[in-house]
TrEMBL record:
The chain crosses the membrane at residues 12-32, 38-60, 72-93, 99-118, 130-148, 160-177. This is DUF308 domain-containing protein. Keywords: Membrane, Transmembrane, Transmembrane helix. The keyword rRNA-binding does not apply.
């Protein structure tokens, strides 16, 4: 895998970390006060998967291995776009429905993330992404069950995104270390 792709992945992971940290901060403030659906909460819930889809599209364009199957990444993009739409609808109806949709997304997005991280392991810094994908499946199951039970604790997705941000930061740092060693 080309070193320039590793540079691009590192930069993307730093950008994803920064975005998530800002999103988490705003989401914690808004979600802690929201007992009912609000327009701002809906916007926040839609922005996160939309940004995720854009980041994966960017990663697809940056990948130099044209012959490699990128099915898991395309699935991730499609799922994130569909979830953004579903969150826009569900979060304007009932918060437990939005939490259940978030849970489904975490499950369905976690699997391709795990597969992609395994495939990108040669680029370095992917162990955190593998863990993130696996944890997404478990966390998503919890969100789905809470939503089905009628619970609407919308700070949960913010905590989940915070953990994801930490994993992106770890991956970016590990890639940076690998790149420095390769250039030494």
């Amino acid at each position: 895998m080309a070193m320039s792709y590793s540079h691009k992945l590192r930069d993307l992971y730093f950008i994803r970390f920064a975005f998530a940290i800002v999103w988490v901060g705003v989401m914690f403030v808004i979600a802690a006060k929201a007992a009912e659906p609000t327009a701002l909460l809906t916007v926040l819930l839609v922005i996160y998967p939309a940004f995720d889809a854009g980041a994966v599209l960017w990663q697809l364009r940056a990948d130099p291995e044209a012959g490699r199957s990128k099915t898991s990444e395309w699935i991730s993009v499609a799922v994130s776009v569909l979830v953004a739409i579903a969150l826009g609808i569900s979060s304007s109806i009932a918060l437990p429905a939005a939490l259940a949709v978030w849970g489904i997304w975490a499950i369905v997005a976690g699997i391709p993330q795990l597969i992609t991280a395994i495939r990108n392991r040669k680029a370095g810094g992917q162990i955190a992404q593998m863990l993130s994908g696996g944890i997404s499946v478990f966390a998503g199951s919890g969100f789905l069950l809470q939503g089905i039970q009628g619970k609407a604790m919308m700070t949960g997705p913010a905590g989940y995104a915070l953990l994801g941000a930490i994993f992106f930061l770890i991956s970016a740092i590990r890639l940076g270390i690998k790149l420095r060693k390769a250039n030494a």
